[in-house]
Design brief:
Lyase, Ornithine Decarboxylase, Chain A, domain 1, single chain, 4 helices, elongated, alpha+beta
Length: 287
């Protein structure tokens, strides 16, 4: 074998060793990536299982909380019941308490074999007893409030009876005053009284006069205006004369009123004043 052939043989051997090492390295790296991939897939599967479990726990938690919310709503609605409902609830709770005591005694007999269960029952009885005590306090408060309200109602009734008695007395006094007013031939209608106190400003003339035949009687004067002009019985009118320099003649008080006529008595007479047909009358004399 020549020297060149030996060199080629050596080179071939070296290349074979090199390629063999390269193949081993590639195989090693490929195996490492495969293992890591398998581990990742396994971990992902575990996470998916955990996710499913977590979703299930969340669903159960949400369901429990929903039930608790509904229970709280029912308790809130129950809390708005009246005193009668509370008393009935108290009776029911008393029966439940008696039943619970009986069950507690039975559970005490089985305490050796069910200690934890008996302990749970005792805790529940404590809660029920506390609730029962609270209900007793609430019932006592409601009874106290009821008594206070009954006292207020009684006091109000006394005041109402007193006011009613004063009202009846006022009605009797008003009826008596009306009788007195009618006895003196006075008006009782508030509207007529208001018109008497506030007569309209009207003017008319003397239509006729009648002198008293007997001493002490009043002279009568008939005028040309009446109720259509706003006059009522009791109005005071002034009599005056416009002819010449004008003259005040006196006052008359109406005793009879018709739609277009009225008759009054002379209640004040001017000195040397003689009322005659054609003289003027008015409810408001302006000097």
């Amino acid at each position: 074998m020549t020297f060149v052939g030996k060199i080629l043989v050596v080179v071939q051997v070296l290349l074979s060793i090199f390629f063999m090492a390269f193949a081993i390295a590639v195989f090693t790296v490929q195996k490492s990536w495969q293992d890591e991939f398998n581990e990742t897939v396994t971990e992902l599967s575990k996470k998916e299982v955990e996710l499913v479990d977590t979703n299930a726990e969340f669903s159960q938690y949400r369901s429990d909380k929903t039930d608790e919310v509904k229970l709280a709503e029912r308790r809130a609605n129950t809390a708005e019941a009246s005193k009668t409902i509370l008393e009935r609830q108290m009776e029911v709770l008393q029966r439940q308490r008696d039943t619970a005591r009986t069950e507690r005694d039975n559970q005490t007999a089985l305490a050796k074999s069910a200690g934890e269960e008996a302990k749970s029952w005792r805790e529940e009885l404590k809660v029920q007893r506390t609730a029962n005590d609270k209900l007793h306090v609430t019932v006592d408060d409601l009874r106290k409030q009821t008594r206070e309200r009954e006292d207020k109602i009684f006091n109000q009734g006394t005041k109402i009876r007193s006011i009613a008695a004063r009202h009846i007395k006022s009605l009797e006094e008003a009826a008596f005053l009306k009788k007195v007013v009618r006895l003196h031939d006075l008006e009782t209608d508030p509207n007529i009284i208001d018109r008497m106190l506030n007569p309209p400003v009207v003017e008319g003339e003397v239509w006729n006069t009648q002198r008293a035949r007997k001493r002490g009687n009043l002279d009568l004067v008939e005028i040309t205006i009446g109720s259509d002009d706003g006059l009522v019985k009791g109005h005071i009118l002034f009599v005056y004369r416009t002819s010449g320099s004008g003259k005040y003649l006196g006052k008359i008080k109406l005793v009879n009123v018709t739609p277009d006529r009225a008759v009054g008595t002379v209640v004040e007479r001017a000195k040397n004043g003689i009322i005659q047909r054609g003289d003027n009358v008015t409810t408001k004399l302006i000097f």
